[in-house]
What does this fold into?
Amino acid sequence: MTGVSTPSTDPELNLKHFQDSIEKPSSVGEGEVQEFDEKRTQRLLRKLDWNLVPFLALLYLLSFLDRTNIGNARLAGLEKDLGMSGLDYNVALAVFFPFYVAAEVPSNMMMKRTRPSLWLTIIMLAWGLVMTLMGLVTNFPGLLVARMALGFAEGGLFPGVTFYITMWYRRHECGLRMALFFSAATLAGAFGGLLARGISEMDGVGGKPGWAWIFILEGIATLIVAFAAFWIINDYPETAKFLTDEEKKEVQRRLKADRTSLADEFNVKYFFHAIKDWKIYIHMLITIGIYTPLYSISLFLPTIVKAMGHTNNTAQLMTVPPYVAACLATIAGGWLADRSKQRGVYMILFCGVAIVGFIMLLSSGNPAVQYVGTFFAASGIYPNVPMGVAWNGNNIGGSTKRGVGIAMHVGFGNLGGAIAAFTYRVREQPRYPSGHGTLLATTSMSLCLCLFMTIYLRRENARRDALLREKGMTLEDYTEEMKDSEREAGDYATFFRYTV
It folds into this structure.
């Protein structure tokens, strides 16, 4: 074909463009890869799952453990030993997030320019080293500097891994894998409480307090895994050592069919396509409404449970069951969403579950009711994190634009961590009305925006279908030549259909 003009963001203009340039569909090329049957496809997916997801989940478990273990360290005497008072603890939480957010978009672009095994290993080594050194701080300013450095070092992992998953799985297969990956965050919450309870008994060993050993040992664990990551992480399907040549071709064929032949090469113009897309900004608002309670729960659940009348050690252990419930809800939600090929309706449902939990925490002074409320809150919030990333990623056409869009989504959402740092203040214990009320409000905002996006995307898909019918065409009529004429249009291509 000759040079193609820059595609419009109007599907109707794009449709007219390729109809003018291509008269009728051509037959399928002889060189096309033979499609696997259902049995072989399922076997291939299981092979991908076992070789990719467990290690990615381990990375995120360590990441989330290292960024939230300060909540456990607080109960082990952190504030007293560092001379902290008033809002000092809240400030220590908040300074992490601006640096975390600043790293996300550049990090995803660097991973696209380099390769996943190299870039993710660099990220891990950086935050593992910072985490270990955090155990050596002796004053509040030192803790602040360490938290800032930790945020910058960790910032690229979550958007990087979610982008990485989209390079291996079809759109309606990503949700469950992202849920399995993110379920590590719930395990980090559960495991963190148990681990902190044990490590805090090392108080005085080597002249270090128990909270310092929490930081040091968990940082060393990250460094050990980082040294292995470079050889364990497979970069791309076409270079994967665990796949046969036939399987590599099938993975690439499936992705091409699912992503509708949109542009995958790196080009700065796709960065600007992302920052001009209003839909990504709606998802950013949805995300901050979900990430604010996510981090509030992660950072303050031990404090909230302790305020119900329990001792420090008992509170550490009582944080485990709500996280287990959240883990099960996250995996179940991801499976159901992939199976039904829908995201919005499930996000609305889980927002509703979380709202029930925050109402229970806000309205009742009964510790039993409040504790049950933590189950509802955690089980409603955690599933929406990977589901929201999958939903946004599913609806961004083109590899580079998707990488930037996911980083924008996750980056803005993580600013919710800075809000979360000040939601629960000491002066409001034991009921914390402002904290629970704030989370109720942000979750309600996300529910309303999810409803809006679900309705809009359904209508937009219907509009594009109607446009094709007017031209006497269906999606099956598109050839590779037709798709190639719109390859740079991303999700505005006439053949692209949104996940609702």
About this structure: Residues 259 and 397 are 7 Å apart (CA to CA).
